[in-house]
Amino acid sequence: MNSLENSNRFTFVRHGEADAWIEVVAAEMAQILNHDIAETGRARMLLSGGSTPAPVYQALAELDVQWDRVEVSLVDERWLSPQDSDSNAWLVRENLLKRAEGAHFDPLVRVGKPLPECVYAANLQAQHNQAPSVAVLGMGNDGHTASLFPGSRDLAKALESTLPYAALDATGCPGANQWPLRITLTPRGLRTCRQRLLLLRGKQKLEVLKQALESNNAQLYPILNAIDIDGPKLRIHWCD
């Protein structure tokens, strides 16, 4: 075992191949949701976009979960209509919600509302809903997670926010591509989640994670804000 498996900062699960990675992560998510449904009658989860988690969402939708007792929202979102195929809302809808009949979805972007109003609504909703059972995170090759991009003008403000969600302008950050305006979960919002899963694929992502851990610089590698926070240890699922 290497230092990743031995870390006391997080739990690292290494999978031999992609099918097992998908199956195990989907089963873990279903178990978390079903536990909270049994305990409180409902469950809530926050999902990320991107091609990495999409097959996990497809597999999760096929598992035995009382979807009419599940509320789904997002870790972050580009400043796009939920109907735009480049939005995280669209990806979650296509890969999970169309299969998980009865699940309730709360998008972060509300059509016709300006960005500050959307952030206000997301914070209001987060503060009045039960704590998320699970949040699914990803990580970019620049070390960002959610929409916490290194070098963005709003990063420090978002990291220090006392609210669950914040607006962020990532203009000039390569990882943001052509969508610099974002709504993102903050470290404060992450702390409210009962469990956090980081889904990674490929050797490059593993190297970025190692670089982040060695740097110990949460401004340069915002993924560290998902690792070194209070609550249950982050569970990292990786396969090549």
Automatic annotation (TrEMBL):
Pathway: Carbohydrate degradation; pentose phosphate pathway; D-ribulose 5-phosphate from D-glucose 6-phosphate (oxidative stage): step 2/3. The gene is pgl. The lineage of its organism: Bacteria, Pseudomonadati, Pseudomonadota, Gammaproteobacteria, Lysobacterales. It comes from the Bacteria. InterPro entries: 6-phosphogluconolactonase_DevB, 6PGL, Glc/Gal-6P_isomerase, NagB/RpiA_transferase-like. It holds the Pfam family Glucosamine_iso. This is 6-phosphogluconolactonase. It is an enzyme of class 3 (hydrolase). It catalyses: 6-phospho-D-glucono-1,5-lactone + H2O = 6-phospho-D-gluconate + H(+). CDD domains: 6PGL. NCBIfam families: pgl. One of its GO terms (molecular function) is 6-phosphogluconolactonase activity. Belongs to the glucosamine/galactosamine-6-phosphate isomerase family. 6-phosphogluconolactonase subfamily. Keywords: Hydrolase. Its EC number is 3.1.1.31. It comes from Stenotrophomonas aracearum. SUPFAM superfamilies: NagB/RpiA/CoA transferase-like (SSF100950). Residues 18-223 form the Glucosamine/galactosamine-6-phosphate isomerase domain. Hydrolysis of 6-phosphogluconolactone to 6-phosphogluconate.
